[in-house]
Amino acid sequence: MFNDRAIPRIDPRRPYVIGPSGLKRIVLGEEVGSRELQQNAHGHSSVKPQRSQGPFRLRSLVVLHTDRGALDEAARETLAAAAILASPDTEVVALLFGGNADSVAAAGEAGADRVLLCADPGFAPQRKLAVLAELWQREAPSRLCLPDRGADADLGRRFASRQGLAVACDVIEVVPGREVRSLAPAGQFAVQPLPPVLLLARKAADARLPFRGQGNDGGVLALPDVGERIRDLGTRSCPASQLALEEADLIVSAGNGVQDTGGLRQLAERMGAAVGASRVAVDDGRFAREQQVGATGKTVQASAYLAFGISGAVQHLQGIKECRHVIAVNLDAAAPIVKRADLTLVEDCQALISALNQLLAAERAANPVLETA
Amino acid sequence: MSKQNLKVAVLLAPGTHPVSGRPCAAAADSAALALAMKLVPSPQHLLVLYAGDADDSALAPYLAQGVSCVNVLPAVAGADVSRVLARQLQDVDLVLCGRRAGGGQGSAMLPYLLAEELEAPLLPDALQLKVGNGQVEVEQYLPKGQRRQLAAALPAIVSVHERASAPLPYAHARLQQGQIRHLSPANLAPGVCHLEPANRRARPLVAASKASGHERMLGAIASDGAKAGGVVVKQGDPVEKAQVLLDYLRDHHLVDF
Ligand SMILES: Cc1cc2nc3c(=O)[nH]c(=O)nc-3n(C[C@H](O)[C@H](O)[C@H](O)COP(=O)(O)OP(=O)(O)OC[C@H]3O[C@@H](n4cnc5c(N)ncnc54)[C@H](O)[C@@H]3O)c2cc1C
Ligand SMILES: Nc1ncnc2c1ncn2[C@@H]1O[C@H](COP(=O)(O)O)[C@@H](O)[C@H]1O
């Protein structure tokens, strides 16, 4: 049977409001709802609510060594883990070694309710243990979380063995209230009951929280005067040329856009940086295979990664996931690396490398003191 | 202290190959062995200890790497590994052990527990080792190419980093000559953890979100957008851009020149 009535159409772009259950289209004739409202909703969602308003009855402690005052990804994940595990009446207290006012705010954003600062004198296990023991006594926390890396891993293990507390190391999965898992060889999990001290591996928690901590400033703790049995004779950094790429803190990396490899090596030497390369540059024979960065090369952890003439293919970006600052030099302002980079200079590599070389040489000439330092 | 009367002990735990799960020498433990061999005139002067009930074949790779005799403290339920080992180590000047037991199975806790038990200083993550004048000096591995010198009076415990030495050569003849000696039974506590097959990925802790579906979608878009927020500099000649680069590095304290 043929129907000659018009088919009722719904305008797909008709106005709408955003309610608690999502987007709601507005029926004709109703007055609420406009596009401006939507704009406001965008702005509003950027401020996260607090995890808990208090009052707090219990405490959970997180101890972190900051990296020149900054919290790295492992630190954020540990704070997030403590915040997720905490009940509404549990306060997340963070003790930051070597932190400053900026790190207090960052730790609050990452989930800490109260942030205590303490100077970081380098290798001082007994003094740090004394601070921690005092804090442990005073706050009586129910849990201590630390990232399982570097100075935090060392301090956490010293504390657990000094206090005789049960500890789980290299934890990659926490089942709240029940158990923790870590990786064992031959594709197995080692499972143990949830202990009071947790040393967390990377990715044990998702650092993107839908809430933040109160971020109150808890003041500065002084290191007590306790004798150390081990003397710290000072730290030095290895010359970058002797370092494995995975260990380097500053990397100058070359891609297909770099023709002047001599200039690049000279620049790396002047900056004290290790030299990396993309696969194309390595396949071309301009760099050695062990300098290749990426999925089929090395994964690097540098604080700063300078990518000269690298397009930023996913296979390459995989290798630099952990780098804190990426600086790209590329002729193409639309190359994929620009999305990853914190700073992009649209310029010819050869010209920029020689300009950098000249700048550094001129600075050395003006300040000969730096040369000996 | 001369080489002859320095008493050095090495702690070895059998390693497990990370993929196949077969016994092998653990990298950190053989590095400890390599450093220890340099301190004594011959391998016979080393006290090599293992506490546990692993098969002799699991310790054989260490024999092939040059140990002349492994002393095994057998395990019976009831006491800690660290306490059992500590009893054997009372009059030893220097204890060397790996940073973490083989194949990542270990928790790297044993050196710390042992240090508490023996009340000796622990120098962690050693790459190089020097002994003289009743003290030990160690180069400690730190990430990002940093090295720290530490010194302590003997007796001391040193945990050795995997990178301290290249793998020791494997010689079947030494495996044949070496021996594994079982000492009288001690009491060992059963471990608190059990193993299960890892036939899935580990689940990270994720905060429960009360946001609506729409907000979550917006959040996903927003976080992608934020990542693309780097500074792009197109203006200026190469020298100006080079200056921008240097300023960026200095502003973020990434270089020290
Ligand atoms: C299975 C597989 C595994 C891979 N593994 C890796 C890996 O581990 N590591 C890796 O790096 N790659 C890997 N690749 C290759 C990867 O996909 C890319 O092909 C490669 O990274 C591209 O290298 P590139 O950026 O140096 O070269 P190109 O893609 O050629 O990019 C060159 C860039 O330099 C710019 N440029 C050119 N001339 C200049 C100039 N004068 N000044 C400034 N900029 C200039 C161009 O605009 C361009 O953006 C893999 C690929 C596959 C399929
Ligand atoms: N049962 C054991 N017997 C002897 N040495 C051990 C034993 N367990 C661990 N070790 C040593 O202690 C180091 C750290 O072990 P772990 O704490 O188990 O990761 C290892 O590298 C070994 O050198």
From TrEMBL, chain A:
Presence of keyword Electron transport: yes
SMART domains noted in UniProt: ETF
Q: Which residues form a coiled coil?
A: none
Q: Which UniProt keywords apply?
A: Electron transport, Transport
| InterPro entries hit by this protein | DHS-like_NAD/FAD-binding_dom, ETF_a/b_N, ETF_a/FixB, ETF_asu_C, Rossmann-like_a/b/a_fold
| The Electron transfer flavoprotein alpha/beta-subunit N-terminal domain, residue ranges | 60-237
Family per record = Belongs to the ETF alpha-subunit/FixB family.
Please state what the protein is called: Electron transfer flavoprotein subunit alpha/FixB family protein
From TrEMBL, chain B:
UniProt keyword annotation of Transport present: yes
Domain Electron transfer flavoprotein alpha/beta-subunit N-terminal as annotated: residue spans:
28-171
Report if keyword Chloroplast is assigned: no
Specify the superkingdom: Bacteria
Keywords linked to the UniProt accession: Electron transport, Transport
Q: Where are the transmembrane segments?
A: none
**What Pfam families does the entry give?**
ETF
Name used for this protein in its record: Electron transfer flavoprotein subunit beta
Organism whose genome encodes this protein: Vogesella oryzagri
